[in-house]
Amino acid sequence: MRDRPDRPAPLLLDVRAVVFDTDGVITDSARVHAAAWKAAFDAYLAEHPSADPALRRPFDVRDDHLRYVDGKSRLDGAAAFLAGRGIEPGLGTVRAVAAEKERLFTERLRERGIEAYPGTVRLVRALRRAGTPRAAVSASRHAGELLAGAGVLELFDVLVDGGEAARLGLPGKPRPDLFLEAGRLGGFGLVVGVDRAGDGDGDGDGDGDSDSGPRPLRHGADIVVRDLGELLTGEVKT
Question: What is the mean pLDDT of each run of 10 residues along the chain (238 residues)?
């Protein structure tokens, strides 16, 4: 007796290609990005406290990360957060904060690496066996190094990262340009949201956003799963 190979679930059988976000979908890197931003921003805020006490609060790895920096270039993210704290820094300051975040993230990445989610790896391998083209997308310039370190870079036919986005002049999320470039024609027939916290909003605080539905659904997902391994079938023993 042995397990049958994983197979994509029936809803994926007619899909012509699949585009995967990297941070938080392929790899457990979103929290490391957020932690690096927090360290960089909090250090700057401590050295340059706002005159308004309400704006002195430290960087929040959930709300501030989503509102100001998620999916943006480092410079845009740094500028957006500082502006949100009532600070109008020059380009030199924005670059310095962004560079510190880059240093902290790179240090963490190279010291300990970042793992890929097993369920995602199983799905990507099943799609490869089925002959379905696969692309990885990230606003980060580290995406190639990150995926290679996790041992999954070779599983993807295409990678559109922050360097490629800058070369092509593509804006980051929430604009879909990175994903459209990876998928070329776009026109996605199925959008899958990943809610790893399983509480409806992905933030782990348990409030669930019950009145308005899960956050991924409210932002355009057709379905929401806790792990991409849920999009597999064929684990029956023989």
Answer: 76 90 89 93 92 89 90 87 90 95 91 92 96 90 90 94 76 64 63 74 34 45 90 61
Give the whole-angstrom CA distance, residue 179 versus residue 175: 9
CATH of domain 7-29+114-233: 3.40.50.1000
Please say if 199 is a catalytic residue. Answer: no
Do residues 121 and 155 make contact, with C-beta atoms less than 8 angstroms apart? Answer: yes
Beta bridge partners of 18: 134
Q: How far apart are the first and last CA of the chain?
A: 5
pTM of the model: 0.73
Q: Which of the residues 3, 14, 23, 60 is marked catalytic?
A: 23
21 carries an active-site annotation? yes
Query: What are the boundaries of each domain within the chain?
Result: 7-29+114-233, 30-112
Q: Which of 6, 21, 70, 199 is an active site residue?
A: 21
Residue 7's DSSP bridge partners are 233
Closest to 63 measured CA to CA, from 86, 81, 79: 81
